[in-house]
Design a protein that fits this description.
alpha+beta, three-stranded antiparallel β-sheet, globular, five-stranded mixed β-sheet
């Protein structure tokens, strides 16, 4: 696999060419100091993003003295400060309607959706964004291993640097998500994206779904992506309404979902696409991010105070200390 195949799939690279058929997106280039912060061990939040637990006007002098003494006795990690980045992220969120979905050049932090209040990847504040970026192993993969399988070069930094991709958030129905495999500029296979869930509407409408995806491919994708072999994800919002979600390289670093790579490489280019869906409840497997799940008490976060307590534990290094005993 070549570096160019990975580079072409980065959202900042392909977005301008396919902007009319995908979600509104803004980009923020990340500075070396912020990238170093993401790669550092532990989770210490910028002070401007730490929620306040008490109203200072409600504290009497005796409480303040005790708090100051306790603060002096407690070792504190150096707190990072990224005011320019926070302001750019805040402006982007506002410009995109107040709710956004984030990723780096390639990956979204899907493994840590549990860190936000509603167990989704919908970010409303710079705090949401930094929590997901800092906690995600998928983001770490972008930073350190994006080009590990490439034969031409050892640098792990993309040509244009690392970029925070901020997209307008849209609630997506799992029954509308599909992954499409292209070889020799021909659509050879389509898989249900959520391959660990039986969604009865997909088998029932499979002919119309495939027709819509083929029409979308012929009209907007075929011959327009720089590589002849690639993978792209789409969202079918309804009949005759398909949107581009992402591109991925046609190789083993991309999840083949309901296929395997031996099978995909054996499908004749130019034939009718093979369309695989979960046909019944019996074929469901485990959760795709099971290794990244969290204890039930964290899953039960359901109030702003719970969120504040959770952030406080992160800032004090509680989770970093607990993780030291675990094998990664």
């Amino acid at each position: 696999m070549l570096r160019s195949q990975i580079e072409h799939c980065a959202t900042p690279v392909w977005y301008s060419h396919f902007r009319p058929i995908t979600f509104d997106t803004l980009f923020v280039h990340l500075t070396p100091d912020f990238l170093a912060y993401l790669s550092a061990d532990g989770v210490v939040l910028p002070p401007s993003l730490i929620p306040s637990h008490k109203n200072p006007q409600q504290q009497d002098s005796s409480d303040s003295e005790v708090d100051e003494e306790e603060w002096e006795e407690t070792p504190q990690a150096t707190q990072p400060d990224f005011p320019d980045l926070e302001e750019k992220v805040k402006q982007a969120i506002e410009q995109l309607g107040g709710e956004v979905f984030i990723k780096l050049n390639w990956s979204a932090p899907r493994d840590v959706s549990w860190m936000l209040h509603d167990n989704s990847l919908c970010c409303r504040t710079p705090l949401d964004v930094i929590l997901l970026l800092k906690g995600s192993e998928f983001i770490q993969h972008d930073l350190t291993q994006a080009f590990m399988e490439c034969s031409d070069g050892i640098s792990q930094t993309p040509t244009g640097g690392f970029v925070l991709t901020i997209r307008r958030f849209q609630s997506i129905t799992p029954a509308g998500e599909f992954r499409c495999f292209v070889r020799g500029n021909n659509l050879i296979a389509v898989s249900q994206r959520n391959h660990r869930q039986f969604l009865s509407t997909i088998p029932a409408d499979r002919i119309n779904i495939l027709n819509d995806i083929q029409h979308f491919f012929f009209s907007y994708i075929q011959g327009k992506f720089p590589d002849p072999d690639f993978v792209f994800d789409v969202y079918r919002a309804g009949p005759h309404h398909v949107l581009l979600v992402d591109f991925n390289p046609f190789c083993r670093v991309t999840d083949p979902l309901l296929f395997n790579w031996e099978e995909l490489c054996g499908i004749s280019s130019g034939s009718q696409p093979v369309f695989k869906v979960v046909e019944s409840q019996d074929s469901i497997k485990g959760h795709p991010y099971g290794a990244n799940r969290v204890p039930q008490d964290i899953m039960n976060i359901n109030s702003q105070q719970d969120i504040n307590d959770f952030v406080s534990m992160f800032n004090n290094g509680k989770f970093a200390e607990e993780s030291d005993d675990d094998d990664l």
